[in-house]
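Support request from a user on the community tier.

User writes: "When I paste my structure tokens into the form, the page sometimes reloads and wipes my input. The last time it worked, I copied everything first. Here is what I submitted, just in case something in the input itself triggers the reload:"
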């Protein structure tokens, strides 16, 4: 469970932090970090393409190995670390050849544990195999969409997909969203559930903490002038005066399907259920 702080003031009364008791190292591995430049939501032309971004604490980017290609022998877990760039924790591995790598740490992984890649003789937590080699019913994460491309889905804290069936060259996965999707048996996946499963229970509690994350304040459309937002204008407190909410550029803001990739519809067996 998240660690609740002592309520020494109104700002800290509801504040809580993630449980870092499982972590064993504070400073990242220097050879696996690079500088991370902030762009404050601006594109290459200098125009704001993502609103409400800017400021925030400095971060070093940890280079995570999402592919973890098959190798001989087993890699040893030497440390579990915090990563400010993602919700999950990360694990530092010492490879059989002496090199070091970062991977997403699964739930239950401990220091001195070993993980393998490409071997089918064991199904230990954190090991990476082809989906076709993993038994039905296992939870997996960091799943490839195309063989050799590296893990692209199911990478956030506490998430996992379940192998529900195998048919021909496809494996059926039940995604965290409840969607059932077909993925090629040649695609790689890591066994287990992603660490830091209580991440969604952390209470931010105060605005200053959000600013340190790199998020700036947001102004309501209703509080703007009519020339600045479709919701703007009116005297005092008024409804938006529209049939449906709009973005500042006049497009639907709620209840509109945003999926564009029609070519991958054939891989979706069952759509996610509405909550």
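"...and here is what came back when it finally went through:"
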């Amino acid at each position: 469970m998240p660690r609740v702080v002592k309520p020494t003031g109104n700002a800290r009364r509801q504040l809580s932090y993630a449980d870092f008791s499982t972590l064993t190292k504070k400073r990242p591995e220097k050879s696996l970090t690079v500088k991370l430049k902030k762009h404050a939501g601006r594109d290459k032309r200098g125009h704001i393409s993502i609103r409400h971004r800017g400021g925030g604490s400095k971060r070093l980017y940890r280079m995570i190995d999402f592919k973890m290609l098959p190798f001989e022998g087993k890699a040893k877990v030497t440390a579990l670390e915090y990563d400010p760039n993602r919700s999950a924790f990360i694990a530092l591995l010492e490879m059989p050849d002496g090199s070091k790598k970062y991977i997403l740490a699964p739930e239950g992984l401990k220091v001195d544990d070993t993980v393998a890649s490409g071997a089918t003789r064991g199904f230990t937590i954190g090991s990476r195999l082809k989906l076709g080699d993993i038994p039905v019913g296992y939870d997996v994460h960091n799943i490839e969409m195309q063989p050799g491309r590296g893990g692209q889905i199911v990478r956030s804290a506490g998430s996992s997909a379940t192998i529900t069936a195998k048919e021909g060259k496809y494996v059926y996965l039940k995604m965290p969203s409840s969607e059932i999707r077909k993925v090629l048996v040649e695609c790689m996946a890591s066994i287990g559930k992603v660490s830091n499963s209580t991440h969604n229970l952390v209470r931010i509690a105060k605005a200053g903490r959000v600013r340190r994350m790199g998020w700036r304040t947001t102004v309501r459309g209703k509080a703007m002038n009519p020339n600045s937002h479709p919701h703007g204008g009116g005297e005092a407190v008024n409804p938006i005066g529209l049939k449906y909410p709009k973005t500042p550029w006049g497009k639907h803001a709620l209840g509109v399907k945003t999926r564009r990739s029609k070519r991958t519809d054939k891989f979706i067996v069952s759509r996610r259920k509405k909550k």
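Agent notes: The reload is a front-end session timeout and is unrelated to the input. The chain has a mean pLDDT of 92. The chain has two domains: 20-197, 223-265. Escalated to web team.
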